[in-house]
TrEMBL record:
Quaternary assembly: Homotetramer.
SUPFAM superfamilies reported in the protein's UniProt record: Carbohydrate phosphatase
Cofactor: Mg(2+)
Main location: cytoplasm
Binding site for substrate: 126-129, 221
Source organism superkingdom: Bacteria
InterPro entries: FBPase_C_dom (IPR044015), FBPase_class-1 (IPR000146), FBPase_N (IPR033391), FBPtase (IPR028343), Fructose_bisphosphatase_AS (IPR020548)
Positions annotated to bind Mg(2+) 2: 123, 126, 293
Keywords, ordered alphabetically: Carbohydrate metabolism, Cytoplasm, Hydrolase, Magnesium, Metal-binding
Encoding gene (name): fbp
Organism whose genome encodes this protein: Keguizhuia sedimenti
Protein's name according to its UniProt entry: Fructose-1,6-bisphosphatase class 1
Xref: Pfam families: FBPase (PF00316), FBPase_C (PF18913)
UniProt cofactor note: Binds 2 magnesium ions per subunit.
C-alpha cells in the first residue's frame, strides 16, 4: 500500500500567506508571533522532561520568593516559563512592553534593545497546579497595539495595557498535552498547529476550527456550588436534571482545572465553560484574569464562532481597570452561553416577588 506523504504548512508559511493580504506590513507582527511560538516550544520541552530535570515543585523562597502577585504559590515552571517568554520576545524590536500574570507591573523593553509597536500580555503557564501530576497545562498570550506615544519612546505604564479585548490584534495558546499544539487567531478565524518534535516546527493540522453552536457538555468546578449566583445555579441544575428536566436532554460534565485544556476541548468538540462571578471571596469578582486568560481565550472562542461572556455582557467589551483584574467567565457553544446570559438578565423569582429590590429599583446598590 503506497504511503501518502502529508505536507502541512508550517506556522511560518501560514503567517507569510496571511501577511500577503497586507502589502504594507513589514513582518514585525509575524516575527512577534514566531517569538511567542519559540517561547512555547522551549516551555513544551521543559514541561515534557518532567521529573527528569529539576523543574517540578514549588519555586524556592531563597530563589526570590514563592508567592506571586496573585497571592498564589509559584511553581518552578511558572518562573521558568515567564522568563522564557520575556527572553524570547524582548529582543526583536517588535514589542514596546509586556505584562504577565507572574509579574506585578509592566516589563519595559530594556533601553539597549529596539522598541516596537506591539504589547504582549501572557499567562506563561496556565493550570500550573496540574504540573506536578502530569496533567495538561498551557501558555496563553494576547497581542495589543501600543499607544503611539509608547511606541515612539514615552515611558510604558500599566494604563497602556488597559484595552478591552476587542482591541486584540491576535491571541493564542499552546497546550502541552499528549502532543503540543499552538492555537492561534490573527483575526481571520482560528487555526491549530501541532508541534512536530523532530523537525521542531508547528505544522498546520487544524485549519478553521469552529465551535459547534449546541452542546451537551459543561465544565464547572462544582465544589463552589454554594457560592454560585442564582442564574448559574439554575443553569447547572437544569443540566443535571437531564432528560427529565426542562432541557429534555442529558448533559455530560468535564473539569480539567487547566482553563486552557478545557478551552481546547470546547474548541474541538463544543461545550460550555463556567468560572462565574461568585460570593466565595467578595474582594474578587471572579477567579480568572481578564488580560491574561479571559480576553485571549474569549477572542479565540469568538473567532471560532462561539461566545464569551461575563454572564452579563460580552467579555471582550469589558474595559479593564487594572492589570490583574479578575472577571467572571462563561464561554463556549453560542446557544448555551446565550442561555446563561438570558438567565442573568431575567429577574430572579425573589426579585419578581419583591419588585422594590429588583435590578433597576431604587433600593438596589
Ligand atoms: O489560572 C487559573 C486556573 O488554573 C485555570 O486554568 C483553571 O480553570 C482554574 O484555575 C482552576 O480553578 P480551581 O482550582 O478552582 O478548579
Amino acid at each position: 500500500m503506497p504511503i501518502t506523504l502529508r505536507t502541512a504548512s508550517t506556522l511560518t508559511q501560514f503567517l507569510i500567506e496571511q501577511r500577503r493580504r497586507f502589502p504594507d506590513a513589514r513582518g514585525e507582527f509575524n516575527a512577534l508571533i514566531l517569538d511567542a511560538a519559540m517561547a512555547c516550544k522551549a516551555i513544551a520541552k521543559s514541561v515534557a522532561y518532567g521529573a527528569l530535570t529539576d523543574t517540578l515543585g514549588n519555586h524556592e523562597e531563597e530563589e526570590g520568593g514563592s508567592i506571586n502577585v496573585q497571592g498564589e504559590t509559584q511553581k518552578k515552571l511558572d518562573v521558568l516559563s515567564n522568563d522564557l517568554f520575556i527572553r524570547r520576545s524582548e529582543w526583536g524590536g517588535h514589542l514596546a512592553g509586556m505584562v504577565s500574570e507572574e509579574m506585578e507591573g509592566p516589563y519595559s523593553i530594556p533601553s539597549h534593545l529596539p522598541r516596537g509597536k506591539y504589547l504582549l500580555a501572557f499567562d506563561p503557564l496556565d493550570g500550573s497546579s496540574n504540573i506536578d501530576i502530569n496533567v495538561s497545562v498551557g501558555s496563553i498570550f494576547s497581542v495589543l497595539r501600543a499607544p503611539s506615544h509608547v511606541a515612539e519612546g514615552a515611558p510604558l505604564s500599566a494604563t497602556d495595557f488597559l484595552q478591552p479585548g476587542t482591541e486584540q490584534v491576535a491571541a493564542g495558546y499552546a497546550l502541552y498535552g499528549p502532543s503540543t499544539m499552538l492555537v492561534l487567531s490573527v483575526g481571520t478565524g482560528v487555526h491549530g498547529f501541532t508541534l512536530d518534535p523532530v523537525m521542531g516546527e508547528f505544522m498546520l493540522t487544524h485549519p478553521d476550527l469552529r465551535v459547534p453552536d449546541d452542546t451537551q457538555e459543561f465544565a464547572i468546578n462544582a465544589s463552589n456550588a454554594r457560592f454560585w449566583e442564582a442564574p448559574v445555579k439554575r443553569y447547572v441544575d437544569e443540566c443535571l436534571a437531564g432528560k427529565t428536566g426542562p432541557r429534555g436532554k442529558d448533559f455530560n460534565m468535564r473539569w480539567i482545572a487547566s482553563m486552557v485544556a478545557d478551552a481546547h476541548r470546547i474548541l474541538m468538540r463544543g461545550g460550555v465553560f463556567l468560572y462565574p462571578r461568585d460570593t466565595k471571596d467578595p474582594s474578587k469578582p471572579g477567579r480568572l484574569r481578564l488580560l491574561y486568560e479571559a480576553n485571549p481565550v474569549g477572542f479565540i472562542i469568538e473567532q471560532a464562532g462561539g461566545r464569551a461572556s461575563t454572564g452579563r455582557k460580552p467579555v471582550l467589551r469589558v474595559q479593564p481597570s487594572s492589570l490583574h483584574q479578575r472577571v467572571g467567565l462563561v464561554f463556549g457553544s453560542k446557544n448555551e452561553v446565550e442561555r446563561i446570559e438570558r438567565y442573568h438578565a431575567e429577574p430572579s423569582k425573589a426579585e419578581a416577588e419583591a419588585p422594590l429590590f429588583a435590578e433597576r429599583s431604587l433600593f438596589r446598590c
